[in-house]
Write a structure and sequence with these properties.
By secondary structure, this protein is of the alpha+beta class. It has 2 domains: 252 residues, D-Maltodextrin-Binding Protein, domain 2; 192 residues, D-Maltodextrin-Binding Protein, domain 2, CATH 3.40.190. It is built from 23 helices and 10 strands. Helix 13 runs antiparallel to helix 14 and helix 13 packs antiparallel against helix 22.
């Protein structure tokens, strides 16, 4: 469940996008939750789960001073959130060193090369959602299977089942532990809707936008009243709706099957409908013009995973506080983004690497990442913590963001994923952009997209 075309345009991973807005998030988009994880001994669900009881923690260092290298793309914000310092206090023999590559594509190419060579691997390697299917299909034997580590059943129980399953191969090997997730909602400019004489209350909009058809019809009204765009781009609709079907880009066997996918066909239809209705701003996402539009009011809505809150805050600035709001996503739940931490087999510090990866992704630490960085937990134990469930955002008009994103995360579907999903989505997004911005015939665009997909997948 991911949107990968944005990486091609932005050349940066999901975690990096969120991290770019950390300063704006932490200073302007406050939640009702504390900006730290619950301490050991706390009664919160997150604190009582794996990784928070410091007195009993096995660092895996055998009493020796060692350096653990963690390979990441972009910026996962662990250092910013203070987690490395906390772990080094817990495990004073451990020094943590980041091996960070800004662009997720470059990171993946290096990781593939090193996996094939069996050398050059870090003690821990991040696995991005756009590439996890390739890892489970082709490299599962190269990583520690987290079903075999100590307390595996307890660790597994803390994650959303769909998050654990996405990193699990067909023969049952789980190659990584989830860092974050991207449950989606719909962010909107409540002040612009009000000025247009349209409903702007999030609960009313949740009802009127319960379906994509209702959302698009509302957008037509907004365009008629204001002459302005309602949503940023067709990709905002397609890339959310595609994961609301039983299948997205692959069939139940994990094989590419775009032509028969209910998710793809419905999402394509909706995106074309929005383009032909003229309700989009026709702006490519992750461009300078798109960034500036958050403050200028060029569009009134955007599909919005949890980490997008920080991005909007950083782009709209202080002047946007209270103007933006959040409601549920039309058509039901969906997910955009997320990663895992995997441990390559046979490293010099494998036991210590497993311990660190387990600790960083434990509920208490995921709670810290939510309260300080707005990274939604892939841990259902952390997401059920009262401080997450009751979180609100001053910046987003006091929206109950914990409840909204929590409902989305709890109701996600798990369409099959495959190793070509990134390329498939890029082809579809590109052709939808041609329909939107150049007026290309939708049927011709569809045929051209299928032809590009067949070139990549060979089928």
């Amino acid at each position: 469940m991911f949107m990968t075309s944005r990486r091609a345009r932005m050349a940066i991973g999901v975690a990096a996008v969120a991290a770019m807005a950390v300063a704006g998030c932490s200073s302007k988009s406050k939640t009702s939750a504390p900006a730290s994880s619950s301490p050991a001994g706390s009664s919160s669900p997150a604190a009582s789960a794996s990784g928070s009881a410091s007195a009993a923690w096995d660092c895996g260092d055998n009493g020796q001073k060692i350096t653990l290298k963690i390979g990441l793309f972009g910026n996962f914000a662990y250092k910013t959130a203070g987690l490395y310092d906390k772990y080094q206090q817990l495990c004073p023999n451990i020094t943590i060193q980041e091996d960070d590559i800004e662009q997720s594509g470059d990171y993946w190419n290096k990781l593939k090369t090193n996996l094939a060579a069996g050398s050059g691997l870090d003690d821990i390697q991040a696995i991005e959602v756009g590439f996890v299917a390739q890892v489970t299909a082709n490299y599962a034997d190269k990583f520690v299977d987290f079903n075999t580590v100590p307390n595996a059943a307890q660790i597994k129980s803390t994650f959303y089942p769909w998050k654990w399953q996405m990193a699990t191969s067909t023969d049952g090997k789980t190659v990584g532990l989830g860092t974050d997730a991207g449950p989606e909602a719909m962010c909107f400019r409540q002040d612009l809707l009000k000025a247009a004489g349209l409903p702007n209350d999030r609960n009313t909009l949740a009802q009127q936008w319960s379906t994509w058809d209702g959302f698009i019809n509302f957008g037509k009204q907004y365009k008629q009243k204001t002459g302005k765009a309602f949503i940023d781009s067709v990709n905002s609709i397609f890339n959310a709706a595609v994961y609301q079907g039983n299948e997205a880009y692959d069939n139940a066997q994990g094989k590419p099957d775009v032509e028969n996918s209910d998710g793809v066909k419905k999402a394509w239809q909706l995106a074309v409908q929005a383009a032909q209705a003229g309700i989009t701003a026709k702006i490519n996402q992750w461009t300078k013009d798109w960034n500036q539009s958050f403050a200028s009011g060029t569009f009134a809505t955007i599909s919005c995973p949890a980490w997008m809150l920080a991005y909007i805050t950083s782009q709209a600035g202080d002047a946007g506080k209270g103007k933006w709001d959040v409601t549920s996503l039309p058509g039901g739940a969906a997910n955009w983004g997320g990663s895992w931490l995997g441990v390559p087999k046979g490293g010099p510090h494998e036991k210590a690497a497993i311990a660190l990866a387990t600790w960083l992704t434990a509920p208490a630490q995921q709670l810290t990442m939510w309260t300080s960085q707005h990274f939604w937990p892939s841990s259902q134990a952390a997401a059920q913590d009262p401080s997450v469930k009751t979180a609100t955002s001053d910046y987003f008009n006091n929206a109950p963001i914990g409840e909204i994103f929590g409902n989305s995360a709890a109701n996600l579907k798990m369409p099959p994923i495959g190793p070509y999903d990134t390329d498939i989505q890029t082809a579809l997004d590109t052709e939808l952009g041609n329909v939107e911005q150049q007026g290309k015939n939708p049927q011709q665009a569809w045929n051209d997209a299928l032809a590009k997909i067949k070139q990549v997948t060979g089928s």
